[in-house]
């Protein structure tokens, strides 16, 4: 199944995808500071372009598991994407940005390049987490 994932940030929104066998996860791209409508359109466009069967959107819960303003924003975007007929699932993204930052540090890239890649890398971490959980459940 082809899946894309989305990491919604304050300034950037990152995208990642996996191959049809769900073995390889790769960062795709990031977009900068768009409106909610533009983000929804980009998610739908990317899902269609990639022939994705499902879209995973990171759900930024607080560390204690409660929802805040950012989680409500993710839920709003997920609902708007679902209205287009694209299958959407929200996925707990706690600590994914930190994990992505650690992975990017290991690449030796400059701080500027790491910042530009941070959200697509976080989207890849979200997608890997989701795929791994599916394998554990079966």
Mind explaining what this structure looks like?
The structure is a single chain. With 138 residues, the chain is of the alpha/beta class. It has one domain: YqgF/RNase H-like domain (Nucleotidyltransferase, domain 5). The protein has 4 helices and 5 strands, in the order βββαβαβαα. The chain has helices spanning 36-49, 69-82, 96-105, 111-137, and strands spanning 3-8, 12-18, 25-32, 54-59, 88-92. The protein has a 5-stranded mixed sheet with strand order 3-2-1-4-5, with helices on both faces. A hairpin with a 6-residue loop joins strand 2 and strand 3. Helix 1 packs across helix 2 and helix 3 crosses helix 4 (111-137). The longest helix is centred in the last third of the chain and has 27 residues, at 111-137. The chain is globular. 34% of the residues are buried. The model has no long low-confidence stretch (mean pLDDT 85).
Note the topology.
Blueprint: E1 3-8, E2 12-18, E3 25-32, H1 36-49, E4 54-59, H2 69-82, E5 88-92, H3 96-105, H4 111-137
Parallel strand pairs: 1-4, 4-5
Antiparallel strand pairs: 1-2, 2-3
Features:
138 residues; alpha/beta; Nucleotidyltransferase, domain 5; 5-stranded mixed sheet; 47% helix
Helix percentage range: 40-55%
- CATH first level: which class? Alpha Beta
N to C succession of SSEs = EEEHEHEHH
> What is the architecture at the second tier of CATH?
2-Layer Sandwich
**Number of folding domains?**
1
Number of strands: 5
Q: What would CATH call the homologous superfamily? A: YqgF/RNase H-like domain
What is the topology, as strand order, of the major beta sheet? Answer: 3-2-1-4-5
Report the end-to-end length measured between terminal Cα atoms: 15 Å
The coarse overall form would be globular
Q: Which structural class is indicated by helix and strand composition?
A: alpha/beta
* Mean pLDDT over the residues: 85
* Largest sheet properties: 5 strands, mixed
CATH-derived topology: Nucleotidyltransferase, domain 5
Strand content: 15-25%
Enumerate the spans where pLDDT stays under 50 for 5 or more consecutive residues: none
| Alpha-carbon Rg, integer | 14 Å
Number of helical stretches of at least 4 residues: 4
């Amino acid at each position: 199944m082809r899946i894309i994932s989305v990491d919604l940030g304050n300034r950037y929104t990152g995208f990642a995808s996996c191959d049809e066998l769900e073995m390889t996860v790769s960062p795709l791209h990031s977009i900068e500071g768009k409106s909610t409508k533009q983000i929804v359109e980009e998610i739908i466009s990317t899902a269609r372009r990639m022939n994705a069967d499902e879209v995973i959107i990171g759900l930024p819960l607080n560390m204690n598991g409660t929802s805040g303003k950012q989680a409500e924003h993710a839920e709003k975007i997920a609902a708007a994407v679902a209205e287009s007929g694209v299958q959407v699932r929200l996925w707990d993204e706690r600590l994914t940005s930190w994990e992505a930052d650690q992975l990017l540090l290991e690449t030796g890239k400059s701080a500027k390049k790491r910042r530009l890649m941070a959200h697509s890398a976080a989207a890849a971490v979200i997608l890997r987490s989701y795929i791994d959980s599916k394998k554990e459940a079966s």
